[in-house]
């Protein structure tokens, strides 16, 4: 199984909650660095206190894992990496696509394509690129 793991710049908690709403998932599992057991040999630096060490959103199409970057380290999503969401459930696909599109940018609206009965692309408000599709049973 391949799963997506998104690294954000201090807003992983916001993103986990956002994706949970967009995919109508349960409340995300979230562990902040401050939730981890204390280790006297490796004390937690204060700059990590409110950052997410690990979060998980369990959606109808799979899991989205997230964490925050180390303080001072910045990464930006780019179009060389796309998250693909496939499902036979058109209603759920459209609903999640529209939720991400509401605060993001539609790159390709949801419509039939030669390789899928329904396909669309969106860039979400965090800068991540998504493809939504119904798999073509003939491919």
Helix percentage range? 10-25%
- The CATH topology annotation of the largest domain reads as Signal recognition particle alu RNA binding heterodimer, srp9/1
CATH architecture of the largest domain: 2-Layer Sandwich
* Biggest beta-sheet profile: 4 strands, mixed
Please provide the count of β strands.
Answer: 8
- Widest sheet: strand ordering: 1-4-3-2
CATH secondary-structure class of the largest domain: Alpha Beta
Describe this protein's structure.
The two termini are 20 Å apart. Helix content is 18%, strand content 37%. It is elongated and about 60 Å long. The chain has helices at residues 12-22, 90-103; strands spanning 4-8, 29-32, 52-59, 62-68, 82-86, 105-113, 116-123, 129-134. With 139 residues, the protein is α/β, with parallel strands linked by helices. It is built from two helices and eight strands. It has two domains: 4-68, 2-Layer Sandwich (Signal recognition particle alu RNA binding heterodimer, srp9/1), CATH 3.30.720; 83-134, 2-Layer Sandwich (Signal recognition particle alu RNA binding heterodimer, srp9/1).
